[in-house]
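User: Sequence recovery, please. Input:
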C-alpha cells in the first residue's frame, strides 16, 4: 500500500492512540492530533522510533479556525488527506435532572460537531480511494446507560453524519464508515466521573457475552480495515465491536 496521509483526532491516548500506532506500523504518514500535547508528541515519537512516519499537531476539535488551518496546511504539504479518523470524544456522566445547556452543548460540540469540523474542510481535496472513519458508540446504535443522554444523542448524530456523507461522496470514490465500540479499556470508560468509572470491568463484564472489556487495539484493527482497500465496497456502515453485547 502507498504511504497515505492519515489524520487522527484525539490520538494522544486510548483508541485514537492505538489507531495512530496501527497506521504508523502500516507505513502511512500519521498526523497525530490532540489537545493533550505531551501524550500526542509521545505517540508520534513512538511511531518514528519504530521506523514509521508521523508528526504531532495540536488540535482542539472545538475550534473551526484551528481545524480549517490544520487541514489547509496538510493539503498544502501533501496534496490531500487520504484517511481521517474522527475519534476525539468525551463522555462525562450527567443525570438529565442536572443537565444544563452548557453541558449538553459541550458533548455535542466535541463528539459530533468536532468530527464535522475536520471532515468538512478536508473533503474538497480528498481523492477517490480516500476514506473517513468516525467513532460512534453502542450508545448511539442499540444501547442506553444512565446519565448518558447527551452522549447517546451525539453518537446517534454521528451515525446520521456517516450515512449522509457516504451517499453524498460515494460518487467521488470517498468511503465513509464508522465503528461503534462497546466497553473499551480507556480513560473515557475508566476515569472517575467518566462513563462507567474505575469499576467498569466489574459492572459491565457480566452483561458482555465475551465476559470482558475490549482493548483499544481491538478497535484500531477494525478502523485500519475500514480504511484499507480490503473494504473497497464498504461505505455508509457502522461496525459494532462490543464482544457480543448488542445486536448492533
Ligand atoms: P479517551 O478519553 O481515552 O481518549 C479521547 C481522546 O480525545 C483524548 O486523547 C482526548 O484528549 C481527546 N479529546 C477530548 N476532547 C478533545 C477536543 N476538544 N479536541 C481534541 N481532542 C479531544 O477515550 P477513548 O475511549 O479512546 O475514546 C475515543 C473515541 O471512542 C471517542 O469518540 C469515544 O466516544 C469513542 N468510544 C469509546 C468507548 C469506550 O468504551 N472507551 C466506547 C464507545 C465509543
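Assistant: Recovered sequence (248 residues):
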Amino acid at each position: 500500500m502507498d504511504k497515505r496521509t492519515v489524520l487522527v483526532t484525539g490520538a494522544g491516548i486510548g483508541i485514537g492512540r492505538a489507531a495512530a500506532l496501527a497506521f504508523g506500523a502500516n507505513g502511512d504518514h500519521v498526523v497525530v492530533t490532540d489537545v493533550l500535547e505531551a501524550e500526542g508528541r509521545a505517540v508520534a515519537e513512538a511511531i518514528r522510533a519504530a521506523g514509521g512516519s508521523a508528526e504531532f499537531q495540536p488540535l482542539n476539535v472545538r475550534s473551526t479556525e484551528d481545524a480549517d488551518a490544520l487541514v489547509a496546511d496538510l493539503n498544502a504539504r501533501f496534496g490531500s488527506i487520504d484517511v481521517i479518523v474522527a475519534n476525539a470524544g468525551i463522555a462525562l456522566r450527567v443525570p438529565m435532572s442536572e443537565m444544563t445547556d452548557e453541558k449538553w452543548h459541550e458533548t455535542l460540540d466535541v463528539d459530533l460537531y468536532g468530527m464535522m469540523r475536520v471532515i468538512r474542510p478536508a473533503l474538497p481535496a480528498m481523492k477517490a480511494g480516500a476514506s473517513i472513519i468516525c467513532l460512534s458508540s453502542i450508545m448511539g446504535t442499540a444501547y442506553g446507560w444512565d446519565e448518558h443522554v447527551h452522549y447517546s444523542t451525539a453518537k446517534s448524530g454521528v451515525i446520521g453524519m456517516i450515512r449522509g456523507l457516504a451517499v453524498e461522496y460515494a460518487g467521488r470514490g470517498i468511503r465513509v464508515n464508522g465503528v461503534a465500540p462497546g466497553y473499551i479499556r480507556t480513560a473515557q470508560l475508566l476515569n472517575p466521573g467518566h462513563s462507567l468509572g474505575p469499576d467498569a470491568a466489574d459492572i459491565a463484564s457480566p452483561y458482555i457475552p465475551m465476559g470482558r472489556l475490549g482493548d483499544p487495539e481491538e478497535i484500531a484493527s477494525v478502523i485500519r480495515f475500514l480504511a484499507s482497500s480490503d473494504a473497497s465496497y464498504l461505505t455508509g456502515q457502522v461496525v459494532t465491536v462490543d464482544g457480543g453485547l448488542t445486536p448492533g
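The mean pLDDT is 96.
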